[in-house]
Design brief:
Layout: E1 12-13, E2 16-17, H1 20-23, H2 53-63, H3 85-98, E3 102-106, H4 109-120, E4 126-131, H5 135-144, E5 151-156, H6 161-174, E6 177-183, H7 195-209, E7 214-218, H8 223-226, E8 236-240, H9 242-246, E9 254-258, H10 260-273, H11 279-289, H12 292-311, E10 316-320, H13 330-338, E11 345-350, H14 353-363, E12 368-369, E13 379-381, H15 393-398, E14 405-409, H16 415-426
Parallel strand pairs: 4-5, 4-6, 6-7, 7-8, 12-13
Antiparallel strand pairs: 1-2, 3-9, 8-9, 10-11, 11-14, 13-14
Helix pairs in contact: 3-11, 4-10, 6-7, 12-16, 14-16
């Protein structure tokens, strides 16, 4: 029986460990397998030919979790809903910055989120989650999951260990806690969840109920350059790859990274319900990964300049930028412990509420008025009427939203130009 050739996976040279930004150029792809092409071709095919009927049978046994003695360790290429060369190389490279055993990619960030949650949160169980969350995630957990018998209990993102424990006890009273779902920093308010406290709480829950909940963290806001939750004990880190990893506002994708064991049911469900990523988008993400560290580092630097301008503007209040956390505060301590950057997406309040915010937004000339974040261009929006409009108004208010709150994602333009644009737009307020 033939065995698929292994991809190119050299991680060191003469005892010298290669860095992720170097490995992004070659890891997981052997040019000899594709006519010596330096870049992987786009494999626009729905299906793959088997060398023998026995190979096909073995591959499907492996995919179905029924591997026999003598079968290959991994399934060869079969059908692009299951595997594809572009997807496999992308998943190999996504593991590098986060130090993950495996990665799985999806057709969108919400496909990654929903598939991961559904794979681990079974009927009768409870999700313990931080709030606020991205609007669609909030609604998925609060409004959809109860329809299939999965309850939820929240704790505020900035909660201390005692508050998280209180929420955990409330959750365990309702049923076994299957998932601890977090998003940090939060979208759009930049609240910080203490991931170390969540990992400790998962251990306490395991002692009481006999099973450990799977900890999931949406790391989209800081990305793999600004934070690596797996190193803190989180089981699955989730990304909207649309954002910083894709980073050019030209694709939609999602990813889930973690251990082989944690991702096994996620992969199985992805194949079953078809939330997989297409090969062309996978190829585009491979291109983007080559520059992700450069882009994110530059955007982080630009964001500080813009945030400092806004902090001192008389028509702006409460700039929620991570670089402004009060030294010695709970948030500053958490940020220093689990993050390595201040990010480039933050929110601030504009004088005059929604009307004032809209006047400023409509007066912008350089910064694009659009949802999403993490692109090469700077984007700005009013979350209360767009990305979080479906979240109940009382919940938005409780979680720190104001009528004049706007969210801004800083890109790669000259920061002086962004400041000039904001200055003239704020004159309209």
């Amino acid at each position: 029986m033939s065995k698929p050739e292994k991809p190119y996976r050299k991680r060191e040279i003469g005892g010298h460990a290669l860095s992720p930004e170097t490995l992004m150029m070659s890891y997981g792809f052997d040019p000899k397998l594709s006519e010596n092409s330096i870049k992987a071709p786009v494999f626009l095919t729905s299906t793959f030919a088997f060398d023998t009927a026995e190979d096909g049978a073995a591959f499907f046994r492996i995919m179905g979790g029924k591997r026999r003695d003598g079968d290959p360790e991994a399934a060869g290429l079969m059908y692009s809903r299951f595997n594809n060369p572009n997807v496999e190389v992308l998943e190999d490279r996504l593991t590098l910055f986060d130090g993950a055993e495996e990665a799985a990619v999806f057709s969108s960030g919400m496909a990654a989120i929903s598939t991961s949650i559904l794979a681990h949160a079974k009927t009768g169980s409870v999700i313990l989650h931080s709030s606020p969350l991205y609007g669609a995630t909030e609604n998925f957990i609060r409004k959809y999951m109860p329809s299939i018998g999965v309850k939820n209990v929240e704790f505020f993102a900035s909660a201390g260990e005692a508050e998280i424990r209180k929420a955990a006890e409330e959750a365990m009273a309702l049923g076994p806690v299957s998932v601890i779902y977090t998003e940090t920093p939060t979208n759009p308010t930049n609240n910080l969840v203490d991931l170390v406290a969540c990992v400790a709480m998962a251990g306490e829950i395991e002692k009481k109920q006999g099973s450990r909940p799977v900890i999931m963290t949406d790391n989209t806001f800081l990305g793999p350059i600004g934070q690596t939750p797996l190193s803190l004990g989180v089981d699955i880190v989730i990304y909207s790859l649309t954002k910083y990893v894709g980073g050019h506002s030209d694709l939609i994708a999602g990813g889930a990274l973690g251990s082989t064991a944690a991702l096994a049911p996620v992969r199985a469900l992805r194949s079953m319900i078809g939330t997989n990523l297409d090969p062309h988008t996978a190829w585009m993400l491979m291109r983007s990964l080559e520059t992700v560290k450069l882009r994110m580092t530059a955007a982080f630097d630009n964001a500080r300049s813009v945030a400092e301008f806004l902090r001192d503007h008389p028509k702006v209040d409460n700039v929620r930028y991570l670089g402004f956390l009060e030294e010695g505060s709970r948030d500053a301590t958490v940020h220093a412990r689990q993050s390595s950057g201040d990010g480039s997406t933050f929110a601030f309040d504009v004088e005059g509420g929604e009307a004032g915010a809209f006047r400023m937004l409509n007066a912008l000339k350089v910064i694009k008025l659009a949802v999403s974040l993490g692109g090469t261009e700077s984007l700005i929006c009013h979350p209360g009427s767009t990305t979080h409009a479906a979240v109940d108004e009382d919940l938005r208010e409780r979680l720190g939203f104001t009528a004049g709150l706007v969210r801004m994602s800083i890109g790669l333009e000259n920061p002086d130009d962004l400041i000039a644009d904001l200055a003239q737009a704020l004159d309209a307020v």
